[in-house]
Every structure is written in C-alpha cells, then in structure tokens.
Design goal:
This protein is of the alpha/beta class and about 400 residues long. It contains 10 helices and 17 strands. Strand 9, helix 6 and strand 10 form a beta-alpha-beta unit. The protein binds S-adenosylmethionine (SAM). S-adenosylmethionine (SAM) binds next to helix 1 and strand 10.
Length: about 400
C-alpha cells in the first residue's frame, strides 16, 4: 500500500483497499462522502457505445458475488465511513438495483438517517439491445446523514437557483460523462463532473473536505477542487489513481479550470421547446404567418417568463394533441409582447387577455422521426416549456 500523494495539498490520494485505508483517516474530519462502489453488474452483458456493440464488464472488481457477499462488502465500508464524518456530515452512494437496496439496508442498520433517494435520469442512455427490458436510463443515489438527530448542511437556495428558480426535485436530468471530461484517459465507470458539481454544491461549503473511498479517476476530487473544497480519495488501482492525478494536473491551467467550471454548471442549459396548443384554424394561420402567440396577461408588467424560455429553440404546434409539427425559432429565446389589437391586425382572434407573448419561427416544419404524444384537450392557448431531449428522434 502506498501513499500516492499528489503534490496538491487539497488532493490527497491513498492507494489500496478502502477497507484498510479508511482506518487511517481521522475521525470526525469529513464533511461529506461521495461513494461510487462496485455495482456488481459485470456479468457478461452487452450494450452499445458509439454505435458499436460492447461488453458491459467493467473489471474484476465489479464481478457479481452472492447476495451475502454484496451485503457484507457494503456493510463493512459503510461502517468504516461513519465515524469519519463530522456530526453534521452526509454521505451519498450511487448504484443501480444490483447493489442499492443492500446499501439502503446497511445504512439503516448502521444508524445513518436517509434523507433522499435521487434518481439520476441520463438524458442520453444507450439503447437496450436485448429488447427484453425497459431501457435502463437511471441510476439511484442515496443521500444520508451520519446522525439521526444532528441536522445536516443543505444549500437549499443554491439548488433552487440551479433549478431556474424553482425547488429542486429528487429527479436530476444530467447527461452521461462527456468527451471534454476524458481528455486524460478513460475510466470504465467515470461519473460526470456535472453530477458531482450538484452533489458537492448541495451539501458543502468552500474549504470543506470530501472523501471518496472508491475514487477511480477522481471525478469527486476534480469537482471538489474546482469548487474550492478539499479532497481525499482511495482506490485500489494505481492506474486509475494516476489518471486522477493527470486530471488534477489538467485543471492547474486556469483557462481549463474555468472552462470546466462553466461546463459543470450548464446542467440546465438544455435547449427547450415551446409546446403550444391552438385550435385548428388558428394553428394554420400561425404556420402561414410564422407567428405563435400565447397569453401574457392584462398588463405588460404581469408578464412572467417561465424558466427555459431563454433557451427556447423550437415551437411545437398542435391541436388537441393531433397534427403536431415542430418549427425552428428564427432566433433562440427571443420573443415580443403584442397587444390584442396588434394580433387582430394580423388576422388572429385572440380571446383571453390584453397582452400576448409572440415568437417568430421559420414556417418549414422540422423533420422528426417520431412525433411526441401530446395529451391536451383544453381549448385554450396554453403553452409549456419542455427540454428538447424529451422529444426523442429529432434529426
Ligand atoms: C465505480 S468505480 C468509481 C469511478 C469513479 N466514480 C470515477 O468517476 O472515476 C469503482 C472504483 O472502486 C475501486 N474499488 C473497488 N473495490 C475497491 C476496494 N475494496 N477498495 C478500494 N477501491 C476499490 C475500483 O478500482 C474502481 O475504480
């Protein structure tokens, strides 16, 4: 066992079995733990990567054992972690059905208090080749605190802000790890920086210390250091830790660090679609004129811009869920406020308010492989903003 310690004081690396090396960490010194333990799913299954069929096996360390083995393994490291946390400290553990239920049982047996189970919904899951199951597109992340009674840190307002001004829910739509995160090499189960960014921001403050007992390529450490937090990482693999150190070296360059900070925070910067309902006659006139409108209010001051409006790229027009067509906006996120009279001058017959939001689009329909199912029976000019990735099959 070696101290792979990097030259960076805020990035401490321990190589070896975490069951041993965890014992070296001072008790009550850790503010948060993120753990991405083996899921025990490397059993010869197949998936798709870059259009090619690949084996899902990750390595010897991920080969499935008996349920008893998986239980004992998880219980042991979770037991070793608990005294390391400060009294108000919290722990996050990621997994799938292969391991996460065992983890939950162990947490409860060991006296942790479970706070949330986050569903990480991947916006870009590979297809399921067997066609015998629903496509696996989620991972679960349990968030628990050390103590039943001592309250934990939660940066509620930061999370709300990150979510466009509304309360953050326990379903997180975040893409899988991207190319810009793999410039130093690959780990087979690397987590996206965007996921760790959110976790670390949710439960720690600047200067806090975050521990990862299954650090791999040290994604937790990179996100922690980019957010001015300290990191301690353990992994049994020398090769993965070396990759982690190269990643740490990479962010010494201020321009790269800034780029990563910007990219990590872009979780909610997905393009959006304005889904707009209108009766058939109005929809056809909208298409003819390349104008779509929705109710704004009785005065210009009452206008409320829904989060996501500024990233609106398409409008989808439909009548009672039928005859859906996508159109591209002339300019992303731009709109105007028109009065009822102005709309009437353009041949429309608006009925609901004095002022309307108007977007202009290119009236040639965009080709989509599959049009979405829209269920809307309300005969009003209601609209909603939906992330573009919810519509599969856009060309
Ligand atoms: C799921 S991966 C973690 C990937 C990491 N989150 C990342 O973003 O790169 C699990 C890691 O745990 C390590 N590992 C498995 N069993 C271990 C043990 N008993 N002690 C220390 N590391 C272990 C493996 O080498 C592997 O890198």
């Amino acid at each position: 066992m070696q101290n792979r310690n990097s030259i960076y004081p805020d990035f401490r690396i321990l190589q070896g079995d975490c069951m041993e090396r965890l014992k070296e960490i001072e008790d009550n010194s850790i503010d948060a733990i993120f753990a991405d333990p083996p899921y025990f799913l490397s059993n010869g299954g197949i998936s798709v990567q870059s259009g090619k069929q690949v084996c899902v096996d990750k390595g010897e360390w991920d080969k499935g054992g008996t349920p008893e083995y998986i239980y004992e393994f998880n219980r042991k490291w979770l037991e070793l972690c608990r005294p390391k946390l400060k009294d108000n400290g919290t722990i996050w553990i990621s997994g799938t059905h292969h391991n996460i239920h065992m983890v939950m049982r162990c947490l409860q047996e060991l006296g942790y208090k479970v706070l949330n189970t986050i569903t990480w919904q991947k916006t870009d899951p590979p297809p399921n080749l067997s066609c015998k199951y629903f496509n696996f597109s989620t991972e679960l992340i349990i968030w628990a605190r050390k103590n039943q009674k001592v309250t934990h840190k939660f940066n509620y307002e930061t999370m709300k802000q990150l979510n466009g001004g509304t309360q953050m829910t326990d379903v997180w739509r975040i893409p899988s790890v991207s190319k810009w995160e793999k410039t130093c090499g690959k780990h087979p189960t690397q987590k996206p920086l965007r996921l760790l960014y959110r976790i670390i921001l949710a439960c720690t403050h600047e200067g806090d210390t975050i521990l990862d007992p299954f650090a791999g390529s040290c994604t937790t450490g990179i996100a922690a250091n980019l957010l001015n937090r300290k990191f301690i990482g353990i992994d049994q693999s020398e090769e993965y830790l070396q990759l982690g150190i190269r990643r740490r070296q990479e962010i010494e360059d201020e321009a790269t660090a800034d780029k990563f900070r910007r990219k990590m925070s872009e979780i909610n910067k997905e393009d959006t679609v304005l889904v707009n309902h209108a009766d058939k006659q109005t929809r056809l006139l909208m298409i003819e004129k390349g104008i779509c409108y929705l109710r704004a209010g009785e005065s210009k001051g009452s206008l409320q811009v829904t989060p996501g409006f500024e990233r609106m790229k398409y409008v989808l027009l439909h009548t009672n869920g039928d005859e859906c067509q996508f159109f591209r906006l002339d300019k992303v996120g731009t709109f105007q406020i028109w009065s009822k009279e102005t709309l009437e001058e353009h041949g429309f017959t608006p009925e609901h308010a004095k002022y309307y939001i108007v977007v202009r689009f290119n009236n040639i329909p965009e080709p989509f492989k599959h049009l979405p199912q829209i269920k809307q029976r309300l005969n009003t000019y209601r609209a909603k903003i939906v992330p573009l990735s919810e519509f599969i099959g856009i060309k």
